[in-house]
Design goal:
It contains 18 helices and twelve strands. The protein has about 450 residues and is an alpha/beta fold. It has two domains: about 220 residues, Rossmann fold; about 160 residues, Rossmann fold (3-Layer(aba) Sandwich). The strands form two sheets. The protein has a seven-stranded parallel β-sheet with strand order 3-2-1-4-5-6-7, sandwiched between helices. Strands 10-9-8-11-12 form a five-stranded parallel β-sheet, sandwiched between helices. Helix 8 links the parallel strand 6 and strand 7. Helix 4 crosses helix 18. The model has no long low-confidence stretch (mean pLDDT about 90).
Length: about 450
């Protein structure tokens, strides 16, 4: 980060490096540091300053009934931010049809050909290739704009900005796009709401930050990065789940009916499962009869192979790639165990919908707020106790199972979520007006 901040000669190559710094943390267990967020923001400001002379922004009239959702990427509906965005598109039509909502996808993990200048560059699928999946989910032609990743960055930014301006939105709802060129360049003209989907969001120019975390949890995380004065509001999010497509059998995974099956799901498990978490779970497996652990998602699991290879050989730990029909898999499991991570929400919510008890920390993960303070664990010691209680106390297990299903189906309806978003829109407009009134003072 220090090199990027100091470098003024090769700024056109900085954006892929900035975005890859997110991958280095989430996939490679790169060590963070307190000034990371502020350093990233400085790098991004240098990038936007570099392109500002190359971007022409037309003036436009805000339409109070038009909402622009800015998405970092739109992938398969199994991708949690994509599922969230698609559900908002559907729900505005159902519960607030007076609003026109359009998604603008920046594809921030797919870089332009003229800006990649280093090896081992992480990237992602092109969102446009997933358009048929979006149309199938919505059961209609999706009102989604996909950035043209074949264009050089300056022309791509200009086209993205022009498309948003032509739409004439009243505000921007940014989902999973912390380093958004659209938000950076239109922030002086529009209120911005930043929806954090994996912990503290980049402290950019948003007027309001929202998410499913409890306020004290997210502000504590911001304080670790020396960031204060974040205007955060907990959002009553909506949840919608697919039904099981197939009927899986325990025999398919060499499991017996007497096995007690735990499951953990994630796309970044190598980074999200700490050694202390793995040690805790493997201790439980070794000390408890008939316990099996399914690990779902692409990962190398080097630590487990090196230290607990016997459990793998005995089929007590079963590793598999991610499968789309998670509800069917959950139907052959007993409980869902969440690592000590910030993410993992949607896979956990789906498990709740299949009546699986969730073992998770309350003050660490986004799923903790949905599980609730009465059932989420306050610390690692309580986490271990919960594992044992669910295994030994059938009456308690049934209570938790019933409560998980009730909480996720009754408390998080999209009608309530849209009503809450409209409330937050008002807060953002007021904050935007206050921000503009202070310019020049």
């Amino acid at each position: 980060m220090n090199q990027l901040i100091a470098d003024k000669q090769w700024i056109q190559y900085h954006y892929p490096l900035l975005m890859n710094s997110l991958f280095y943390l989430s996939h490679n267990k790169t060590v963070s540091y307190p000034q990371l967020y502020s350093d990233r923001q400085l790098v991004f400001e240098n990038i936007t300053d570099y392109y500002s002379s190359k971007v022409d922004i037309k003036s436009f009239q805000r339409n109070p009934k038009r909402i622009a959702i800015v998405a970092g990427q739109m992938l398969s509906p199994n991708h949690a931010p994509t599922m969230l965005t698609l559900n908002y598109l559907k729900s505005f039509i159902a519960y607030a049809p007076e609003y026109e909502v359009k998604v603008f996808t920046e594809d921030h993990f797919h870089y332009s050909t003229n800006e990649v200048a280093f090896p081992s560059c992480y990237s992602s699928a092109v969102s446009r290739t997933c358009k048929p999946l979006h149309a199938e989910f919505l059961n209609m032609e999706p009102n989604i704009y996909y950035s043209d990743v074949s264009k050089e960055r300056e022309f791509r930014i200009q086209e993205d900005i022009n498309t948003v301006v032509d739409f004439q939105p009243d505000l921007l709802l940014v989902i999973g796009s912390d380093y958004s060129f659209i938000a950076a360049y239109l922030g002086k003209m529009l209120p911005i709401i930043n929806y954090t989907v994996g912990g503290a969001a980049n402290p950019s120019n948003a007027d309001v930050y929202i998410g499913g975390y409890e306020k004290e949890v997210i502000l504590k995380e911001y304080s670790q990065y020396a960031i204060d004065n974040v205007n955060y509001h907990k959002h009553m999010m909506g949840l919608s789940f697919p039904k099981p497509v197939q009927a899986l059998s325990r025999i398919d995974y060499k499991l017996s009916q007497t096995d007690y099956v735990m499951v953990t799901v994630g796309n970044r498990l190598d980074a999200e499962m700490s050694e202390s978490f793995i040690d805790l779970i493997c201790k439980f497996i070794n000390n408890t009869p008939n316990v099996k652990w399914l690990l779902v998602g692409s990962a190398k699991h080097k630590y487990i192979h090196n230290k607990y290879n016997t459990l793998i050989n005995n089929n007590q730990i079963i590793m598999m790639d991610y499968i789309s029909d998670l509800p069917a898999l959950y139907n052959i499991c007993n409980i869902y165990i969440n690592p000590f991570r910030q993410a993992g929400g949607f896979s956990g919510y789906m498990a709740m919908n299949q009546s699986l008890p969730i073992v998770t920390l309350y003050n660490k993960s986004d799923i903790g707020a949905v599980v609730g303070a009465n059932f989420a664990c306050k610390d690692i010691e309580t986490y271990e106790q919960e594992l044992h209680r669910l295994y030994t106390d059938n009456a308690y297990f049934n209570i938790v199972s019933t409560e998980m299903k009730r909480r996720v189906t009754q408390n998080y309806h999209f009608k309530n979520s849209i009503e809450d978003l409209l409330r937050i829109f008002t807060l953002a407009r007021n904050a935007f007006d206050n921000r503009n009134s202070m310019v020049g003072q």
